[in-house]
From TrEMBL:
This is 2-C-methyl-D-erythritol 4-phosphate cytidylyltransferase. One of its GO terms (biological process) is isopentenyl diphosphate biosynthetic process, methylerythritol 4-phosphate pathway. It catalyses: 2-C-methyl-D-erythritol 4-phosphate + CTP + H(+) = 4-CDP-2-C-methyl-D-erythritol + diphosphate. Belongs to the IspD/TarI cytidylyltransferase family. IspD subfamily. The record marks R29, K36 as: Transition state stabilizer. PROSITE patterns: ISPD.
Length: 239
């Protein structure tokens, strides 16, 4: 296996960004099969699509993937022809996987992006937009889209309690970008589970900034998302 220190030097020495890619999830909502990041979209694993786009972002100096523990070697071999990456074993929860990958990011990398393998069609330009906002001074940056449906608050028995003002709501994506020290502090302080890394930063009381998200950054969660992604892939720029 290649020495990881050589691998980090190969991607883009001028880049100032490390991207941490949690890819260790089972994909329970997708139904029975391989771990989600290894399932195929038009003949290639989701993780390959994701890493190809991540590596195409000029700011990215290094990529760390958190793989299912049993698949670390296989993921390393799978990604070797795509881009130089470090592969670590992920954990039981998404935040454990992010923490494991963050632990190997060197201290001299100032900006860290966290990107779900499941958002495998997020374009390189989205990485650049998020990284630029961190470079411009934000501590934490998230790509987000307006909510398009009417949103109701509903009781456990199905009774509608009210209609929420959707103009103040956003659907949040990845890659999410952080000053490296902010992300490390948020993870160190996180006592409860959080579904996204910005949530941990919010709990520190630090501001989080939204930038426009991308329809291509949809998260593959259910089988219908794979069908949607198959069509989006045909519309997306080759990475
Ligand atoms: N223990 C975990 C759980 C999730 N993830 C990653 O976090 C991202 C977002 O998670 P999600 O889409 O919810 O994936 P799963 O947890 O695999 O989905 P499910 O809840 O349906 O099992 C995915 O790239 C997934 O691989 C991870 O690295 N480690
Ligand atoms: C990080 C995330 O993709 C932002 O939308 C999302 O929170 C992951 O949540 P999930 O419940 O693990 O799918």
């Amino acid at each position: 296996m290649t020495d990881d220190r050589d691998v980090t030097a190969q991607l883009n020495a001028r880049g100032d960004v490390a991207v941490v890619v949690p890819a260790a999830g089972a994909g329970v909502r997708l139904g029975p099969g391989a771990p989600k990041a290894l399932r195929l979209l038009e003949g290639e694993p989701l993780l390959v699509h994701a890493i190809r786009r991540t590596a195409a972002a000029p700011s990215v100096r290094m990529i760390v993937v958190a793989a299912p523990p049993a698949e670390v070697e296989a993921v390393h071999d799978l990604l070797a022809p795509v881009a130089p990456v470090i592969v670590v074993a992920g954990g039981a929860e998404r935040q454990d996987s992010v923490a494991a990958a963050l632990a190997v990011v060197p201290d001299d990398v100032g900006i860290v992006l966290v990107h779900d393998a499941a958002r495998c069609l997020a374009p390189a330009e989205l990485f650049e937009r998020v990284a630029a906002a961190v470079r411009d001074g934000a501590d934490a940056v998230i790509p987000a889209l307006p909510v398009v449906d009417t949103i109701k608050e509903v009781a456990a028995d199905g009774t509608v309690l009210g209609t929420v003002d959707r103009s103040v709501l956003r659907a949040v994506q990845t890659p999410q970008g952080f000053r490296a020290g902010t992300l490390r502090a948020a993870h160190a302080a996180a006592a409860d589970s959080h579904t996204d890394d910005a949530g941990a930063v919010e709990k520190l009381g630090r501001p989080v900034l939204c930038v426009p998200g991308s329809d291509f950054a949809l998260k593959i969660t259910r089988p219908i998302d794979l069908a949607l992604a198959t069509h989006l892939l045909k519309l997306s720029e080759p990475a």
